[in-house]
């Protein structure tokens, strides 16, 4: 899946997220913040019939982030973190606000008035807490991470097409070497690896939802060679396309997370 910018809190259970070469394990003691669109794979690692996996996810509104950033003091020098996904110790304030926001699901009369206020509170706490520098930097639009976000937006819209590193570096207003360095720090992968993951995730979704065969799905996402598609698919997902899709169809609860 492509993880949109979001705050993720686990109320019960545990999860493992794979981002490029990075492995992130977390549970109720931590919260995860994705500040960029990132292709990831993930799996629930702790859950049972008596204690099912429970999570809270709030997608981050870019316009609201920018509005809040204008009210905050300037970032100190060096506060622009470069990583697009970070993990931090949970705080009582975040738990309290997330609990109140979740409770509004059963209070529909007051939800339209209160939910925006609590969402704003959550974003303020994120932007002023540990790791908030990257969100504030992106919201300002004048940071290295914000420049990388522009290149990522182009890759998402044109992932089926070939690209040059020089073109992406130009979109980010960086030299080629600086762009590659900052892109890898932000996403834990190279631009080419990012594109491959977008292609393979989309092909997987097409085979699951539209029941395309592997050759057609690979062609739709930009692969000219079925054998290359199968090799790269297996490298990412651990199994060849036919076997992987058969497994996912046999376990709908897993397929729902794709």
From TrEMBL:
UniProt keyword annotations, A-Z: Transcription, Transcription regulation
GO MF annotation, one: DNA-binding transcription factor activity
InterPro entries recorded: Homeodomain-like_sf (IPR009057), HTH_AraC (IPR018060), Tscrpt_reg_HTH_AraC_N (IPR009594)
SUPFAM superfamilies: Homeodomain-like
Residue ranges of every copy of the HTH araC/xylS-type domain listed in the record: 149-247
Protein name: AraC family transcriptional regulator
Organism for this UniProt entry: Novosphingobium lindaniclasticum LE124
């Amino acid at each position: 899946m492509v993880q949109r910018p979001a705050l993720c809190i686990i109320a019960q259970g545990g999860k493992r997220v794979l981002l490029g070469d990075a492995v992130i394990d977390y549970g109720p003691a931590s919260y995860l913040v994705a500040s960029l669109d990132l292709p990831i794979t993930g799996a629930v690692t702790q859950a049972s019939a008596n204690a099912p996996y429970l999570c809270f996810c709030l997608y981050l509104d870019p316009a609201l982030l920018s509005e809040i950033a204008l009210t905050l003091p300037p970032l100190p020098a060096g506060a622009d973190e470069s990583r697009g996904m970070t993990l931090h110790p949970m705080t009582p304030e975040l738990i309290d606000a997330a609990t109140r926001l979740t409770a509004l699901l059963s209070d529909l009369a007051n939800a339209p008035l209160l939910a925006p206020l609590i969402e704003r509170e959550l974003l303020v706490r994120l932007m002023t807490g540990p790791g908030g520098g990257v969100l504030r930097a992106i919201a300002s639009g004048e940071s290295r991470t914000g420049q990388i976000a522009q290149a990522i937006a182009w890759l998402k819209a044109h992932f089926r097409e070939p690209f040059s590193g020089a073109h992406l570096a130009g979109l980010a207003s960086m030299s080629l070497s600086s762009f590659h360095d900052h892109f890898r720090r932000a996403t834990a992968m190279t631009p080419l690896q990012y594109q491959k993951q977008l292609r393979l995730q989309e092909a997987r979704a097409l085979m699951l939802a539209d029941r395309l065969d592997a050759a057609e799905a690979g062609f739709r996402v930009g692969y000219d060679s079925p054998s290359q598609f199968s090799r790269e698919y297996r490298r990412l997902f651990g199994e060849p396309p036919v076997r992987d899709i058969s497994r996912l169809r046999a376990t709908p609860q897993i397929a729902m997370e794709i």
